[in-house]
């Protein structure tokens, strides 16, 4: 075994030092500080913070708004994640085929991803505005009444889901498109010679080979489903009656509107725990089905 000199070891550690410092400063320290703060009360200039143990967590379990927001987030994730990934895969397969104006199609699908979040929210605000919005203008042609899409608790969360899918599908498409271009064309030619249909080739050959990309996209989609703030801030402010509020936006409200950073830290710890459990579950159960090349 070749001996590695101390100088080479030191050089390697120095290369890792900048990334390590950034991780410590912006990931590990904030996480530990947030965890510690969740066990204290909210301090003021007159009354300093006191250790309260699990009191903040007990309050969270009794918080009706938290459970409403958590349920909203579950519905939001269950719709945005699978639909965004399915659309991304369909678009990638389509623009990877022998298609005229292929570059134009790719650019059109990816364009929503390049737009800033605030710009996207304002664009869709024009669509959803009652009476003068584009959707009401079109539906009024067929005699439909005006609908307050963002002011109705029954429709507001669906409106946010549509915006997210529209913006994220093109982003995920890029990863699938890059993965498709690494597949050997000989696989498809061999499948055709064997008389396999396109669906059979996709189900038995293409999709299994795309599982590493699917795992990567799935992790990103789950993370994105828990971090929406910008659209809600512009479109609904979490209303009406918290019908469109999601967990991260509720944390933002608690920390910066209600000025209760201790309770916000508690909610943040729960959010991090949920994401950690989901990520571990994905790697434990899905990694067995991934075909690495």
UniProtKB/TrEMBL annotation:
- Domain ABC transmembrane type-1: residue ranges: 70-280
Q: Which GO terms describe its biological process?
A: transmembrane transport
Q: Which residues cross the membrane?
A: 12-29, 74-95, 107-127, 155-180, 201-223, 262-286
Q: Where in the cell is it found?
A: Cell membrane
Family annotation (Pfam families): BPD_transp_1
Q: How does it sit in the membrane?
A: Multi-pass membrane protein
Per the record, its GO cellular-component terms are: plasma membrane
Record keywords, A-Z:
Cell membrane, Membrane, Transmembrane, Transmembrane helix, Transport
What's this protein's family per the entry? Belongs to the binding-protein-dependent transport system permease family.
Q: Which protein is depicted?
A: ABC transporter permease
């Amino acid at each position: 075994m070749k001996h590695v000199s101390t100088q080479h070891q030191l050089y390697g550690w120095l290369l890792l030092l900048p990334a390590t410092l950034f991780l410590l400063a912006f990931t590990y320290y904030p996480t530990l500080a947030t965890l510690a703060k969740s066990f204290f009360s909210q301090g003021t200039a007159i009354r300093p913070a006191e250790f309260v143990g699990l009191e903040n967590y007990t309050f969270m379990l009794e918080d009706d708004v938290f459970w409403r927001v958590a349920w909203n987030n579950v519905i939001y994730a269950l719709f945005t994640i699978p639909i965004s990934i399915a659309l991304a895969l369909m678009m990638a397969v389509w623009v990877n085929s022998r298609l005229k104006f292929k570059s134009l199609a790719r650019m059109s699908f990816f364009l929503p991803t390049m737009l800033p979040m605030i710009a996207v929210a304002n664009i869709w605000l024009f669509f959803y505005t009652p009476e003068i919005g584009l959707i009401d203008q079109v539906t009024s042609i067929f005699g439909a009444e005006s609908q307050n899409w963002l002011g109705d608790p029954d429709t507001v969360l669906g409106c946010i889901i549509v915006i997210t899918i529209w913006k994220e599908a093109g982003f995920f498409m890029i990863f699938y498109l890059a993965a498709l271009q690494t597949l050997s064309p000989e696989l498809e030619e061999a499948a055709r010679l064997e008389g396999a249909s396109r669906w059979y080739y996709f189900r038995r050959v293409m999709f299994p080979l795309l599982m590493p990309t699917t795992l990567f996209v799935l992790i990103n989609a789950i993370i994105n489903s828990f971090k929406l703030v910008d659209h809600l801030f512009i479109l609904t402010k979490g209303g009406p009656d918290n019908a469109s509020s999601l967990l991260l936006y509720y944390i933002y409200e608690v920390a910066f509107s209600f000025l209760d950073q201790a309770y916000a830290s508690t909610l943040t710890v729960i959010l991090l725990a949920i994401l950690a459990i989901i990520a571990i579950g994905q790697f434990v159960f899905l990694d067995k089905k991934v075909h690495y090349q």
